[in-house]
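Tutorial sheet, problem 5. The three components below are modelled jointly, 1202 residues in total.
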Amino acid sequence: MTVPEAKRQRRENMLDVQDENNISLQSNLHHEFNNNADRVLEDSDMIDDSEELEAPGENGEILPLDSDQIKTALNACKILVIGAGGLGCEILKNLALTGFKDIHVIDMDTIDLSNLNRQFLFRSTDVGKSKALVASEFVMNRVPGIKITPFFGKIQDKDEDYYSQFQIVICGLDSIEARRWINAMLVNMVDDESPESLKPMIDGGTEGFKGQARVILPTITSCYECSLDMFNKPNSFPICTIANTPRLPEHCIEWASVLEWPRVFPDQKYDTDNPEHISWLYEKASKRAQQFNITGVTYFLTQGVVKNIIPAIASTNAVIAAACCNEAFKIATSVAPFLNNYMMYTGNDGIYTYTFEHQKKPDCPVCGTIAIKIDVNPEMLLEDFLDVLKEKPDTQLKKPSLRTATKSLYMQAPPALEKASRPNLLLKMGDLVGDGDEITVTDVALPVSMQLKVTMLKAQ
Amino acid sequence: MIKIWSMKAKEAAAEKKKPKTSAAQIRVQKDLAELEIPSTIEMTFPDPADILNFEVRISPDDAVLMPTHTGFYKGGQFHFTFNINNNYPHEPPKVRCTQKIYHPNIDLEGNICLNILREDWKPVLSLHSVLVGLQYLFLEPNADDPLNKAAAEDLRSNRRAFEQNVRLSMRGGLHKGISYDNVIA
Amino acid sequence: MLCDELELHAVGQALDELLVPGTIMTAVPDLKAQKYDRQLRLWAASGQAALENAQVCLLNATTTGTEILKNLILPGIGAFTIVDDEVVSEIDIQRNFFLDTSCIGSPKSKSTMQFLQELNVDVKANYEEKSAGYYIDENHAFFDQFTMVIATSLHEAHALKLASICQARNTPLFLIKCVGFAGMFRIQAGEHTIIETHPENATDLRLDVPFPEILEYVKSFNFANMDSSEHGHVPFIVILQHFLQAWKLSHDGKLPESYAERNEFKELLKKEMRSFDEENFEEAIANVWRLASPSKVPDKVKEIFKEPKCENITKESSNFWIIARAIKDFVYHEGAGLLPTPGKLPDMKADTKSYVQLQQIYRQKALQDLEAVKARVQSLLTEVGLLPDAIDAREIEEFCKHAQFVKVIRYRSLEDELIRKVHKSEISQWLEESDPTNNIVHYIIFRAADRLANNQIQSVGQKEEDAAVKALEEATRQVLSSMDIPQDKVTYMLDSHLRKYVVNFVRYNGSELPNIASLMGGLVAQEVIKVITRQYIPIDNTCIYDGMTATTSIYDL
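Model answer (structure tokens):
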């Protein structure tokens, strides 16, 4: 069973199929960017409000690199590094050598043997230890006069207060989910009345000989979420192919991992770091491949498919991490104009970089949302609060649905949620939300959503 | 290692956290609040505060839906669980059928062969597309790209027999040694 | 329980064995394979073996130099030697990660070697406390031991000498400069041949010239008698061949040749679909465009065939040229004008049996072609007096698989670039291009700076800066004039846009920025790896990076 249009597009991407009169995906993308150009201009006046973001002199001449101005700027900049892996190790080294003095680093991972071909701050005796801790200690021992504060944990463990202490955030992450989270956090933190609430985010990513570095000025330039469509999700095969018409060794491996494992071990998820589990999957996949006359199932491939392994090498990480740190250096010191706003790098056929301005997406669910501060009378009923929203002339909401991060205040649909949340209409706002809470409002009239930051008025 | 873990715990405890609405949650809220689905699809939320995990019941018996269809599965109520993670809509929702049913595109473990749930998912699709696609499976089971091969072969070779098997299985009957769940409403 | 399902596993299998597809065996990769897992997915065991045999020499332990080595030591080159006669200073500590305060006053070569060696115990490390100039001027035999020479911050005169030393030894040479926001590197590697270029889309289905076995196989499909499931699982190649045969019958034996005809053929296929979204037919329709480009030997490969090295095979010919010649002969005989079939089938909507059978047919044909090429290689070897098995069968197989995409790069020598055959008109033209990603100006400035002594372009105060700018500007003028650019134009160029580059270069104060050095270290290491492994395509021949604009440009200088 298929939804045909979705299928057609996937196949065209997969098979390198093109029509002679088709324009390429790439040019479509750029076309789309250009259409959004005016949107960015509207918002770009914020750059002038913020001293350190101002572009340097028009004549293109720089400050002498050993000038005190540069040193002072670097001393004053507290920078957060997210990820202490392939990019993170490079980033920490570069920032330390560049002269940043107060660096923080977050990573939830521990060191694995397969990290050692590129994560050069780790040795085989470090396997199993926290990346953030080992990396910090190593760099501090090597480079005198700097302080690196590690956090062994998840970025989600930290809140707005924590992130607001930094001037710049630089990310070397391997997960889209984590990037989306920090991006949303930083966009959300922007307060139009306080320029320092805007934290430039520099994001790097690599895959084999390819990579990208980009600068995100939350709410001003295109954010990570704006570009989500550009990233491929991991390859997955139709489940009926896996079940009944396998052709590739990968199909046999997915059969073992997606269908066979849960059937045999319904209560246990396999652990991709457990060699016994991978071996089990490899055995099953091999047998299935034999049965169907398919060649090419190896342990190596099994591991690659099951763990969705992305090739990673020291050289690409060095290029992308350095590109990111160079932008951090330029932003922190204003020594030269910084990247606006995206650099793509390809190194398998020669060396090729492409820099361009990725455009904001008007209906981006993160930076396209309207953020409003709102005073709420705790005595007001939710029902009346809804009416207030509907009467707001600038939004013209029709059927608003309201939620906080943990609660459905009132949902217009589906019926079950409407019914479950209906009693809330007659409750007082003071009983439903608290001071500082954020209410997400969605409505057919809104391209995405509206975020209401609640200031609770004193009860009268 | 002990030292590290205690440090982690200490740091984490020191954080005062206010939960944030994730981009995925915003998107799901929008998907749900603007959902227009026929009465044949019913959603239930075990925890109305949690909109990322819910159940769906499809009763493909509304003659208004597609009057021309034979309605093999008329009279049944089919249960699914939806689990959406914080990578939505980059990743599709995870959907499973919680009953053991006889269907060419749903296997006995509850796996579903619907292209937009896997290989053809993309962020512009929504929960609406998934629900409609899921319902369509019961109106137009596809025998050519099966997940339950035996059921598909029955459908291809003998529609009448297939229909009887469906009826039998829906009542919780035993067919070819497999005992199915009773799904009659 | 899970453990009952498991059999015992042999640990410590050779890497090679694990990477052979199709073998079924139970083995968890050994520690080395685990450590290098993420890179083996790019260059496989053959690339890794090449790296492990490499002996790399670094001249001058600059930040850029040690960053390059870091990115070569981590993936596991065989050995490296650092040549540097300086002692470690305070400034070095601040800029170079592979030094710390304990190194101050020690030989830089030794200290950086020690810190770099820690990165990978499998790599052998050496150092020489003498200057690069000593070996370049007085001890050429020193370079015999290396498979690769990397030199940072060499002056033009020494670079030229070193280039001719390396040229004489057939040793690839990398020359790197990195100052402030600007970085530049140059490859001189004589003739560089690549079999595994790793193209992104390498499909060669021979749709317009199907071999008889395919046509025979297509006949076994009776479209009319199929049920909907069978019909929906015929591989698109079979669909295309089936309906192309019918088309040919009504078109004088010709394929759909024009755009209009191909559209007509697509319509015909559309009519054959049993449902509006029959996936295999959609694939067939989507692949009709391939008929627009008939199967043939690509022009670039034809050029390789025409080279004298391909014509005149001798005892000294490299494996690449002997196999190339064998394939050339194959094309004119067994191949009937076409290269050996690669034998690779992409995935397509199909049932397992048809797909595997079709795959078998392509593989058989590839095997047949390979055997023919092997026979030709053997007779060539015998003709020139070598043993018939002097070339590894796997190498011949790789060449046959990738024949469409093999590549020969002939690097210009540094002597040609700087003295004998200067690309004057090209360079003046690049200088006039207004493309913001055009970085040729840095080449001019780097060369200008080489005309001055180091202390001439250092700025301590405003007065010194003005003098330094003036000196560098004058040197820039000389370099531009040497490109035969008229004086008035040179003046105009300097006044209009080159001056800021001169000023900035002076303000860089001759120092490396750690980020730019690290970035150059990544770029250079990547290209070194490509040259060593003979996989992927290295640049030809100069890459210039500008950290202000975050752009790279490539020039053939």
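Marking note: Residues 13-57 of chain A have pLDDT under 50 and may be disordered. Full credit if you identified this.
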